[in-house]
Amino acid sequence: MNHWIIAPVVLPAFVAAFMVLTMRGHLELQRIASLAAIVALNAIAVGLLWSATAHGPEAYFLGDWPAPFGISLVLDRLSAMMVALLAFVALITTLYAIGSGWDAKGAHFHPLLQFLLMGVGGAFLTGDAFNLFVFFEVLLIASYGLMIHGGGARRTRAGIQYVAFNLVGSSLFLIALALLYGVTGTLNMADLAAKLPSLPEGDAALLRVAAVMMILVFAIKGALVPLQFWLPGTYANAPGVVAALFAIMTKVGAYATLRFVTLVFPTDLPATGTLIPAFLLPAALVTLAIGALGILGATTLPRLAAFAAIASMGTAFLAIAHMSPQATSAALFYILHSTLATALIFLVSDLVSRRRAHLRLDVASPVAQNGLVAALFLAAAVAVAGMPPLSGFIGKLLILDAWRDQAFAIWPAVLASSFLMLLGLSRAGSLLFWKPSEPAETAEPAPHEPLALTAAFALLAMIVALTLAAGPVTGWLDGTAASLHDPAAYIAANRLEVVP
Amino acid sequence: MEALLASVIGLLSAVGIYLTLRLRTFPVILGLTFLSYAVNLFLFTAGRLTLNAAPIVGTTDAPADPLPQALVLTAIVISFGMTAVIMIMAIGGHLQAGHDRIDLDEDKA
């Protein structure tokens, strides 16, 4: 058994607990420990990526209890890719937090971040539906702490809304799990996939209810309309660096949806059939529209970034809703790109916020270090809107190509929303950087933070690298999508015991 | 017994949803608590209702299903922790802002 599979869960858990117990109040030590753990996590993630590519899906049985009786973690190409993406975004945000001094504005930033990594990494790796719920709760409870990091009445009250919304989501998740267990007697995802096709006719209605509730929960996490209301308030009020880290948290919703619609509820399952794509598609289109309009109408830069996150989820869910290997591959590429792009725009919005007198998007207040920050904003805007030459363009092109069969309905929606996003981003950029009515001398003094700027540029460099390596990456993603849509190897990796 | 349990779950959910939709944080937290009671009971019934049966194979003809009991235990612990977190945040928000409205509309506060 490959014990490295559980490392992305165990390592952050131990480091977080160790930091809380021994480094309370020692920020420098915490920074070193946190960075060391995240660098190690990156190395492990690269190793897992190689292992999943070379050996195919592999299961890890906790306590060596055979599936489906024990909990199993399953490493396949998709989960390895998501863990690697998580590790990279975590590295960038930690560097940025250290460079900008965000981690000094409240206690326990680094332990909370490690617990968040544990929750997100576990959610990507687990092969058990109830364990997925547990890891969701781990990542949520860490995100509650991070969301209100730095304090302030408005941030705390936005946090209460966020927690309340997610507690309702958790209740829905538990109801869905109870229904699934009630009709099948198992919660192991591979076992569910093996058992559901032979489900008695009478239980089909219950299964449909469970499937819809499950997707609703993932839609809450992924901010799919009409369940996106929590996102703008939460992300716009969270510290900028935390919002950048949350860019990967919304992708957990997309990941879980992708996992369930390919493994547990595929379109050839008689009980659910095309039920899930039938309502994912319109929801994704409306999400995209709301994201684009939100960018156009945003009054502050953090809100603009939050709506950019919503629009990116709309695009990703649009690709998932096609339910074909080609579209899934496009969705994976877009998830890779949009996680980096959303994180970048949140970092840029934080850079701007700390170089200006106030947050409103208007011409009154100039930005210190105008040229440098403006260049970063331009790059982030190009990435978010999906313009050439960055990888967002390639991602959207792949999605449009996958939807060629319904080009008349889908293409105008995607293209029009991209145009609106471009318009909104250009408007924000010209207001902020071109038209300050006060002279530049009145700008806030520019904070000296080379590490924070380096982190933002490293993120941009990764987007450029993704663009340059688009050929090999899409080739690898095609293989990943093909194995997702033919989950026989994933199920076989669990070595399911035959229950008499 | 099924009818009794079903109506109790329904009643708890109704109360929970009504309170969750209120405008102040305290009723919302109470509503979330009621909702979690309803969900925990519902989760418990996923293993079917059995009377006078231990969850151990061999002790009775039809043993109770042990797994939902373990699931409920996990769910109770998690919802307890979450309630504590939102309670602390609500108190903090109330003390900092001077009111406990749940919406973010500052002008009407």
Explain this structure:
The complex is a heterodimer of chains A (500) and B (109). With 500 residues, chain A is mainly α. Helix content of chain A is 73%, strand content 2%. A two-stranded antiparallel ribbon of chain A has the order 1-2. The two termini of chain A are 26 Å apart. Chain B is mostly helical and 109 residues long. Chain B has one domain. Chain B has helices at 2-20, 25-45, 66-97. The mean pLDDT of chain B is 88. The interface between A and B is medium-sized, with 31 and 36 residues.
Quaternary organisation of the protein chains:
heterodimer
Biggest protein-protein contact in the assembly = A-B, 31 and 36 residues
Radius of gyration of chain A (CA) equals 22 Å
Question: Which residues of chain B sit in consecutive blocks of at least 5 with pLDDT less than 50?
Answer: none
Low-pLDDT parts of chain A are: none
Largest sheet of chain A: 2 strands, antiparallel
* Mean residue pLDDT of chain B: 88
Number of strands of chain A: 2
Class from helix and strand fractions of chain A: mainly alpha
**Percentage of residues assigned to helices of chain B:** 55-70%
Biggest pleated-sheet summary of chain B:
none
Summarize the structure.
The complex is a heterodimer of chains A (500) and B (109). Chain A is an all-alpha fold and 500 residues long.
Write the layout of secondary structure elements.
The complex is a heterodimer of chains A (500) and B (109).
Chain A (H helix, E strand, L loop, with lengths): L6 H16 L4 H29 L2 E4 L10 E4 L1 H24 L8 H17 L3 H19 L5 H32 L4 H7 L8 H18 L8 H8 L2 H25 L10 H23 L3 H21 L3 H29 L16 H16 L5 H12 L4 H28 L15 H19 L1 H16 L2 H6 L7
Antiparallel strand pairs in A: 1-2
Chain B lengths: L1 H19 L4 H21 L20 H32 L12
Quick tags:
heterodimer, A: 500 residues, mainly alpha, 19 helices, 2 strands, 73% helix, globular, B: 109 residues, elongated
